[in-house]
Write a structure and sequence with these properties.
Layout lengths: L2 H20 L3 H15 L4 E8 L4 E9 L12 E2 L3 H9 L3 E3 L20 E9 L2 E10 L7 H40 L3 E5 L5 E4 L2 H6 L3 H4 L10 H17 L10 E6 L5 E13 L2 E10 L1 H23 L3 E6 L4 E4 L1 H6 L17 H5 L6 H14 L3 E7 L5 E11 L2 E11 L1 H50 L5 H32 L7 E4 H18 L15 E4 L1 H13 L1
Antiparallel strand pairs: 1-2, 1-6, 2-3, 4-5, 5-6, 7-8, 7-11, 9-10, 10-11, 12-13, 12-16, 14-15, 15-16, 17-18
Helix pairs in contact: 1-2, 1-4, 2-4, 12-13, 13-14, 14-15
Length: 570
């Protein structure tokens, strides 16, 4: 080879290597590699293989040369660690094998006759793995030279470099795309600052939290979004850390601080810091979460808890709230008084109640029943109210048990004890008073029944004699008098019946009659009986009946007569 040829060959090698270094496509890399090998090295057959690490085989993707027909590519696939090319993959070293047909590692398809062969086989690397390999053959005694082997290795190194660049760029793009997705979808603000405390990056969420767009914040000092109360301490501690590397805060994770919105209002935030190094520069990143809603919820819960605690402390009932591990969460003074516990209720918070039933059972009339009742309630976890417990000192307590579930998860229970001793005593007094009243009513009814019987006998006698006198011959005037006697007697008898009826009413046994009677006759008899009294008072008493009034009525004639007589006598 002349000097001119050598210069021309180096020029071609430089051109192809430059093109290999600039391509970003795998197929273009293999095409340029094949072009370079064909241009710079004489061969009979050349094949470029890609490695299938799943099936542990090399599969040809480009095959060229005078000895190449239209054979199936699959027949030319090579298992890892078999054949010269497979061995190159395992060793990760290129080989130049003269008289390769005599090498025991040689593999030939059945239809390919074994002939004199010279070979160069070189792996293509991709990071720590083998991307593939290429092999060149000469089916003659003309052996490959060291220069040709070096040229092949040079092209292989540039092809490997190009493949690694392609992978690296793809990974960078994937990482950037992933970062972009994260930045766009994350609900937290992400801010990056340099050693000078200047903001060099922030995502779109930052505007939602602080009101500033990324454009407004880039290049600004981080203190722009800080509450003024924190800026001095931040600047001092940041400079101290840059100079010494010592954190003044124990942790850079989940710090609760106060930020400042663009409109001036405070924003409660949770901040986590991180540090990295980029091109020799220290970079600090912060993930910032708006915890305004959480703070409002915490304040609501705190206020509710305070109101609940105050309510429980002032209740005239003993309250004990335990968690799922039977640790005291809340109790009050009344509970301590009921069970003779001489300490402040707040000192009991966190105490274990698992043995409290055994310790308190001696206060109760049925100690074992008290313990067993608690065990059953804790096992069943079902609400039970107004369970009565009798203490040895005579007091009576009503107990409620309420299990506490949060989203179907058992989180503890509440005991509520009420002293119902006075209530039980009042209840017993009412029962006694009711019994006494009923006894008094029965005595009254017995007395009235006896008196009515004693009164009915002489009145019935008077009425009987009046009936006998009425049968004799009497003057008209005497007949009127006798009629009045009979009406008055009958009325007196009805009054006696009324007294009995009153007793019946009080006893809830009063019943009205439903019979047909003539109202005009009753009215005439009533007026006749009242004439003597009207005459004494010099009052004229007359009876006028409305023609529209029916002759007969349906009802209770005794009650009707009593009402009309009361109205007339009044």
């Amino acid at each position: 080879m002349t000097e001119q040829d050598s210069i021309l060959e180096r020029k071609k090698l430089l051109e192809i290597s430059t093109r290999l270094g600039s391509t970003l496509d795998e197929q273009e890399v293999t095409r340029l590699l094949a072009e370079g090998l064909t241009t710079l090295i004489s061969y009979d057959t050349m094949a470029i293989y890609t490695a299938d690490h799943v099936h542990q085989r090399l599969t040809p993707i480009i095959v060229e040369g005078r000895q190449w027909g239209k054979q199936d590519f699959d027949k030319w696939s090579i298992p890892f660690q078999q054949g010269i090319v497979g061995n190159v993959i395992s060793s990760s070293r290129g080989e130049m094998v003269n008289n390769a047909h005599l090498d025991p590692r040689s593999l030939y398809p059945e239809e390919v006759p074994i002939t004199t062969e010279q070979m160069i086989a070189i792996p293509l690397r991709l990071g720590d793995q083998c991307w593939g390999a290429f092999a060149m053959n000469r089916m003659s005694d003309a052996q490959f030279t060291e220069t040709e082997f070096e040229t092949a290795q040079f092209l292989a190194s540039y092809a490997s470099l190009a493949l690694n660049n392609i992978k690296l760029i793809a990974e960078i793009k994937e990482t950037q795309a992933l970062r972009q997705v994260i930045f766009e979808t994350i609900s937290d603000s992400i801010i990056t600052v340099n050693e000078n405390g200047q903001i060099i990056f922030c995502n779109e969420v930052t505007e939602k939290i602080f009101g500033y767009s990324p454009y407004e914040l880039i290049g600004e000092d981080l203190t722009k979004i800080m509450n003024e109360a924190y800026t001095g301490a931040h600047n001092k501690s940041f400079k101290h850390y840059l100079a010494s590397g010592i954190k003044k805060m124990k942790s850079w994770s989940a710090l609760e601080l106060v930020g400042r919105h663009k409109d001036g209002h405070d924003v409660p935030i949770e901040v986590s810091f991180g540090e990295t190094n980029s091109n020799g520069q220290r970079i600090f990143s912060a993930i910032i979460r708006d915890i305004s809603q959480r703070k409002r919820s915490e304040q609501t819960i705190k206020s509710t808890k305070i109101r609940l605690e105050n309510l429980i402390r002032t209740l005239q009932a003993g309250v004990l709230v335990e968690d799922e591990d039977r640790k005291i969460v809340l109790t009050n003074k009344t509970f301590c008084e009921f069970f003779g516990i001489p300490v402040d209720p707040d000192l009991l918070l966190g105490a274990d109640c698992s043995q409290s039933a055994e310790q308190s059972k001696s206060l109760f009339a049925d100690p074992e029943g008290f313990v067993q009742g608690i065990d059953k309630l804790l096992t069943d976890r079902v609400i039970k109210v107004n369970e009565e417990l009798i203490l040895k000192d005579g007091r009576v307590l009503a107990r409620d048990y309420v299990p506490i579930f949060v989203e179907d998860s058992y989180r503890g229970h509440m005991w509520l004890y009420r002293d119902i001793t006075e209530s039980k005593r009042t209840q017993q007094d009412l029962i006694t008073a009711k019994y006494m009243a009923e006894e008094s009513m029965r005595a009254k009814q017995d007395f009235l029944a006896k008196m009515s019987h004693e009164l009915r006998t002489p009145i019935n006698g008077v009425l009987g004699l009046a009936n006998l006198v009425a049968a004799s011959e009497l003057s008209k005037e005497n007949q009127e008098y006798l009629r009045g006697i009979r009406f008055s007697g009958e009325h007196l008898l009805s009054i006696i019946n009324d007294i009995l009826d009153l007793a019946k009413i009080e006893a809830g046994k009063m019943k009205l009659q439903q019979v047909i009677f003539r109202a005009d006759e009753l009215m005439e008899a009533m007026v006749s009986s009242q004439q003597p009294y009207a005459a004494e008072k010099k009052i004229s008493l007359t009876l006028t009946l409305d023609p529209a009034m029916p002759e007969s009525l349906l009802g209770d004639p005794v009650r009707f007569k009593q009402i009309m007589l009361n109205l007339t006598s009044n």
